[in-house]
Design brief:
By secondary structure, the chain is of the alpha+beta class. Among the domains are: 57 residues; 49 residues, no CATH class. Helix content is 31%, strand content 13%. It contains six helices and three strands. The chain has a three-stranded antiparallel beta sheet with strand order 1-2-3, with no helix packed on it. A hairpin with a 4-residue loop joins strand 2 and strand 3. Helix 3 packs across helix 5 and helix 4 packs across helix 5. The longest helix has 16 residues. The relative contact order is 0.07.
Length: 177
């Protein structure tokens, strides 16, 4: 793009290409071996602690005997394209494509036992490889259903019939104060 031997001077060439003149003279500096070793160690630590930002990574590296500051860690992290994984702002906002389900109990007077039941499906990680759903239900008047462990593919088929079939009609154990 830029021809140093052209009859147009460099200033005019940069102006025509809409480049800054300083970028014409920039010579990239190769990454040093020390920085490559630090980058390798930062990458290893990032895989162990994906939530660690530049401050925690700096503390981990200083604990290993490296003389490094937070800004240098941040610069190397940017070069490598890694960042800490943490909850960002507005993660609980509804996505426009997701459906909104109506609240079916609005205006309903609950005045007898077993009129309303609730299901709680919670994810439990039982092993690093497999995850299973465990659900437990509790009636409004204290009856409960014993928890049962299901495979992940069973959870979408959770229906009212499956809740009704597994109901245990007994009072929960009393707590002593």
């Amino acid at each position: 793009m830029i021809d140093r031997d052209h009859e147009l001077n460099l200033t005019r060439q940069a102006e025509l290409l809409e480049l800054s003149r300083a970028s014409l003279y920039y010579q990239p500096v190769p990454v040093t071996d020390a920085d490559l070793a630090l980058m390798r160690r930062i990458d290893e630590r990032h895989l162990e602690y994906p939530f660690a930002g530049s401050r925690l990574l700096r503390d981990l590296l200083v604990g290993e005997g490296h003389a490094i500051g937070r800004r240098h860690v941040r610069t190397l992290m940017r070069k490598m394209g890694i960042s800490a994984i943490y909850r960002r702002a507005h993660t609980s906002r509804r996505h426009p494509a997701h459906p909104v389900y109506p609240y079916l109990l609005r205006g309903l007077a609950i005045d007898r036992p077993n009129q309303v039941w609730a299901a709680d499906i919670t994810l439990y990680l039982l092993s690093p490889v497999a995850s299973r759903y465990r659900h437990a239900r509790r009636g409004r008047h204290g009856y409960y259903v014993r928890p049962r462990v299901w495979d992940v593919d069973v959870a979408p088929r959770l229906t009212f019939a499956s809740l009704r079939d597994r109901t245990v009609m007994e009072a929960p154990p009393l707590r002593r104060a």
